[in-house]
Amino acid sequence: MDLRVLDDTYIRIAGVVPESIVDGPGIRYTIFTQGCPFHCHGCHNPQAQPLNGGMEVKLRVLYDEIKANPLITGVTYSGGEPFIQTRPLITLSKILKEEGYSLWSYSGYTFDKLSDDFMRHELLELLDVVVDGPFVQSLKSLDLDFRGSSNQRIIDVQKSLSLGKVVLAEGFK
User: Fold this and answer.
1) DSSP string, 11-70
2) Which site from 39, 78, 80, 142 is most exposed, i.e. has the minimal number of CB atoms within 10 Å?
3) Mean of the per-residue pLDDT values of the chain
């Protein structure tokens, strides 16, 4: 893909964590997208909920920060709700995937809802893992890997799409 598209594509974000170890395995660059329709009680990032909050940035800025750090092995989309900004994330994901990065995303939508929608499905096809489902305060647990509540699943996206059913990623509690 022509990298010039990164200069012409914008995404609204709440912020980034340039070296995260809590949003998937390894050292990851985490992008917190802006806007979320779920408004989960106990949300760890309520400032990312308003659709018109945060800031608009060129994908080039995010890409350059990712590439500048040789420790980064993966990129995670969090939020807010990443799947309400699929077009810019698809653009970024295609480039990052070609360059060998692991791609994870969180979503308040279930895997079935994501795979039933054309645009969301297109982003899913580029991801390695999705952590699906809304955060549920009454199911909160600090003992879970890479998720906040026990209803959320760590899904191996490629196996799930291939088999037509949800396949949980192995090695996580």
Assistant:
1) EEEEEEEEEESSSSSSSEEEEEES--S---TT-S-GGG-STT-SEEEEHHHHHHHHHH-T
2) 142
3) 95
